[in-house]
Design goal:
Oligomer: single chain
Radius of gyration: 30 Å
Number of helices: 5
Helix content: 25-40%
Number of strands: 2
Amino acid sequence: MTVIELWGRISEAGKLEVDLPSGLPPGEVKVMIEVPIENQEASKLPWEERPWTEEEIRELLTFRPAESGAEIVAMLTETDGWWKDLNITDSVAWVQELRRKSRERRKW
């Protein structure tokens, strides 16, 4: 399937006016109409229903790397860590205990 994007206009009489490029073969086509909402009309809608602007879409699709490994480690060492809330003093012993409990649960 070949997709051709064209700009058109809906007349006062309700007719769609489009200039087609030459060389298109005759036959059935699927017509999709996207009607832009004017800024004033869009501003009347609740923000959840407002259409995305090209700028917003471009912003959302822009890749921004997360913090570097060094920044993540620094962030974790700045706080006491979530393990302190669980009274974990030895991380190796804690993991070994979790594994032991998991093995016990899987036994018949």
